[in-house]
Known about the structure:
The protein is α+β, with helices and mostly antiparallel strands. It has three domains: 1-108, Winged helix-like DNA-binding domain superfamily/Winged helix DNA-binding domain (Arc Repressor Mutant, subunit A, Orthogonal Bundle); 110-252, Endonuclease, Chain A; 255-319, Orthogonal Bundle (Arc Repressor Mutant, subunit A). 51% of the residues lie in helices and 16% in strands. It has helices at 9-20, 26-33, 37-50, 68-104, 116-128, 150-157, 174-185, 230-245, 265-275, 280-287, 291-305, 310-319; strands spanning 53-56, 62-65, 110-114, 133-138, 161-167, 189-193, 200-203, 207-214, 220-227, 247-248. The chain has an eight-stranded mixed β-sheet, with helices on both faces. Strand 1 and strand 2 (62-65) form a beta hairpin.
Amino acid sequence: MLEPLGIDAHTEQVYGLLIRESPRTSSEVADGLGCSNDRARRGLDRLVKAGLASVDGGHPARYRAADPRLGLAALHRARLHEVERTAQDVDAYVAEYHERMLRSDTRRLVEVVEGPRAINSRIAELLAGAEHEVLAFDAPPYVNADGASDAEKEVLRRGVAVRAVYQSEVLDLPDHADRLRHIVGMGEQARVVPRVPLKMVMVDGRDAVVPLTASEEGTRTTIAQVRRSRLCDALRELFEAYWVQATPVFPTALPGGGGHPDLSEQERALLGLLNAGLKDEAVQRQLGISERTLRRKVADLTARLGATSRFQAGAQAVRREWI
């Protein structure tokens, strides 16, 4: 039962005997288990080393079992630490292996995938293997408005962190705005900027997929899968730079608490959308307000911020940490 903690069956038998009958000498343990004195002593020494037993002074030495709640818990923590350290070693070996392979064959750095079916299959495969985080740049045009893919939803259900920066134009498309609202509700962290540099999906910082070509209808015809490398690191740094400047979308995605104490949640959301450069129709749709109400609120916030335009109002709100 204790083998996962590094305690073999014989040593566990010794520990069980000490729990029932302590203290005991090595010869008494040997008699109790029906084994040689040398074998009993080796088991006792392993228990002492593992922190599951202590030895009293004197001759002959007598052994006592440690409290299982303390001893086994400490051993469990030590094993977890060893596993984590091993995982770090594995990552180092993997990185070294990939670096060597890239030096010997640079074609392994980038793989070109052609055709919509093959591309969708590759992205779904990468998402299925995501363990820690998925990053994405996203922008129109799109093929359809069917909503988040099953693969993306499954990633969120598994608890993988997902962060995405969208081109603000997405919120001008009702179907895709609804889709974005839904996926944010599932846990995605979404932000918008006036324009993204490219479309991209990155999984665990090790694989990035970027389009090489695209039709006007939005169908990707050729992509490049960039594997773990400095190029992949650069794409991540590009994402992080945009993420810092981007504006959270939807009230549930906006920072809670903090900010200006006199701002309502709707006003905070409005300032965020203004900073993202959304058009009036998109703002009205996201906030569920009329054109007249929107104009009144924009005029009020602009005056309070001392701004000369709606976009400047959003930018001022960010600088003053109102949002």
